[in-house]
Amino acid sequence: MGNATPQLKVHVHGALNVGASREEVLEIIIQIAVYARFPAALNGLTWAKDVFRER
């Protein structure tokens, strides 16, 4: 886990483009912690915040 940064950023952009809120994106990534482990979820939060700054 942790080697999917480009794909995650594309999916976060896509989610925002179709109407998901930033809060919804963050909540989904927090839920990932159960399946992908906490460090991967923390990386996802960091990458999502990068996308939010880009927009």
From TrEMBL:
Residues 7-50 form the Carboxymuconolactone decarboxylase-like domain. InterPro entries: 4CMD/NDH-1_regulator, AhpD-like, CMD-like. GO terms for molecular function: peroxiredoxin activity. It comes from the Bacteria. SUPFAM superfamilies: AhpD-like. Transmembrane segments: none annotated. This is 4-carboxymuconolactone decarboxylase.
